[in-house]
Design brief:
The protein has 5 helices and 7 strands. The chain is of the alpha/beta class and 182 residues long. The protein has a single domain, classed as Rossmann fold. α2 runs parallel beside α3.
Length: 182
Amino acid sequence: MEAKLQILSLEDNIQDFELICENLKSSGISMIITRVDNKRDFLYSLQNNKYNVILADFNLPGFDAFGALEICNEISPDLPFICVSGSIGEETAIELIKLGAVDYVLKDRLVRLPVAIKRALDEAKEKEIRRLAEESLKVKMKELQRFHDLTVGRELAMIELKKEVNELLLKSGQQEKYKIVG
């Protein structure tokens, strides 16, 4: 059984929220969607719940998508953020994407929303795989460095010991025993 998608919707218009829900349900998305309509509730929900994606209206009373994105970037920077707006200019949408939003969907084109969510989730999964691979690589590099330091350190200590033995042999009138190259 596939887990339900956990969605946080920042939307002050209940009719728009219902349209978003209907659109997602009709596209076959299995979800639990939580609606908040202000900064305080948005912040609380982000801090106290785990979501797969955020859908944020652009304009809310006393709050906007830029503020929501900033909060999201601070609390959960890997959480996909999609702006769903009735009217958003291209420059504004580009600015949101530059700041970390993964997409924007116009409310009169909600048919794009399921595709945008799927793409955002796929990108988030790829980022997570890449992050885990990078973490694993860092661990292996540290292990390799430690092994290198250990073996090279032993080799250098061995060379120094051989030099000291040779010096002591020479001081005692004997010939050097070890030939040291380099």
